[in-house]
Amino acid sequence: MKKIFLPLSLFAVIHTTHAASAEHCATLSDNAQRLACYDQLFAPNQIKKASKAVLDLDKSYEKSRATGETEIVISESQITPTSKEDEAFSSLSFLYDLDKNSSKGILSVREHEPMYIMPAWYNTSPNYTPHSPSRGTSDNDIQKKQKRVETKMQMSFKTKLMEDVFKTRSDLWFGYTQQSNWQMYTLGDKSAPFRNNDYAPEIFMTQPVKANLPWGGKLRVLGAGYVHHSNGQSRPLSRSWNRGYVFAGMEWGNLTVVPRIWTRIDPETGEKDDNPDIMRYMGYGDLKFMYKFNDKHAAAATVRFNPKHGYGAIQADYVFPIKGRLKGYVRGFHGYGENLLEYNHKQTGIGLGVMLQGWDKH
Fold first, then answer.
1. Are residues 131 and 30 located together in one domain of the fold?
2. Coil, strand or helix: which one is 17?
3. Is 228 a catalytic residue?
4. Where along this sequence does the record place binding of Ca(2+) (predicted)?
5. Are residue 137 and residue 43 in the same domain, yes or no?
6. Structure confidence by residue, pLDDT tens digits, 116-169
7. Do the annotations mark residue 274 as ligand-binding?
């Protein structure tokens, strides 16, 4: 009876204490003081309950080494409660729900790749005659008449299909990204055509992890996915390929690094392949760097390189405030694969516009 009575007594004391504290908060006439009182009373517990368990790679390795068998160790994510709960989470955490599941739940529209509009994108070397080994050289009026300056835009979103699957708290996602090149400045023509559209639906899985890296870094997430990438055009302008990929997300303070490795997975070969040499130019992966200077300014870079053939690309991005939540966006690009139609054409471009959502959000 004593064993039962003691927990009940403790519960009664805790409940009475919280009730008394809540009553005290309610008596405060100042709005700011009353809100601070409630935050101090309830906010830390709310954050703790919302935390998500992650796969601890360091402890899993140590335990597996000690037992001689594969062992999985799940640890609670280390979240430090702050006056503003969002400050406790990083960009990677928000993008992939690493420390807690989003209150939006599954099947809700979420941020994915950056979403932007660049009214002015200048290309130093337009590709007037796109070429592919299996499709030959394309004789197309839209390509021939294209201007060096065009409008470039991208829309992107993802949604969580399943959360906390398996025993390791993995999440399953669907993502979609569409990039467009719009010849808005082709004056004198009856219409301003979209020169190219790239479509990239994908499905991928993320695994929250916990592991220490050199120089104070943290490994936060591992992932794998499958993406179909095509431009939806008919031959000879058709371009498409399918990839399987793996990636990792790492953080060093305000610096985020995401390496990704891919391999081509395509049933078409020979003459049925729109772009048989695409891996030569797109390589076997990319490396992304993202750095937040403060809440208003952020920069990023993406690098691709195929050491066997010497082809690659580098892209640099900068985000800055304009007014309110509106942010300016500058991009520079040099190399191959700026878009799918011109995957094997080397070009240099620079653009200015606005970013609607992206890696700089948090």
1. no
2. helix
3. yes
4. 191, 238, 274
5. no
6. 999 999 999 999 999 888 888 877 888 888 899 999 999 999 999 999 998 788
7. yes
